[in-house]
Amino acid sequence: MKLITAIIQPDRLDHVREALIQADITRITVSRVTGHGRQEDIDIYRGQKIAPNLIPKIRLDIAVNNEFVEITVDTIINAASHDVGEIGDGKIFITPLEECIRIRTRERGGKAI
To answer: Which domains does the chain have, with CATH numbers?
Structure first.
C-alpha cells in the first residue's frame, strides 16, 4: 500500500478529479494549502529581500494498493500539467502506507482502502 500526495494548481483540480474517476480511482482527500517552490519571486523592498508570497495550491491524498500506484501517478501527471510545462505545475510524493483501517467495519490493509 502507498500514500500518494500530489500538490497541484487549483485550476487543475477538476481535470485531475475527472481523470482519476475515469481511471477508476474514486477515493481521494482534497485540501486547500499554500506554499511556494521554484516559482518564488524574491522581492526587494528598501534594499531588503522579502520572502516570497505563499501561493494557493491543492493537496490530494490518495491511498492505493501497489498495483494502482503507476496508474494513479500517470493520471495525475497527465491531468495536472499545463500544455506549456509551467513552473509550478506541482509535485507528487509516494510514501509507504504501513496500515489502513476502516473504522466502520474494522477491515485492515488493502481491503480497507
So the answer is: 2-112 (3.30.70.120)
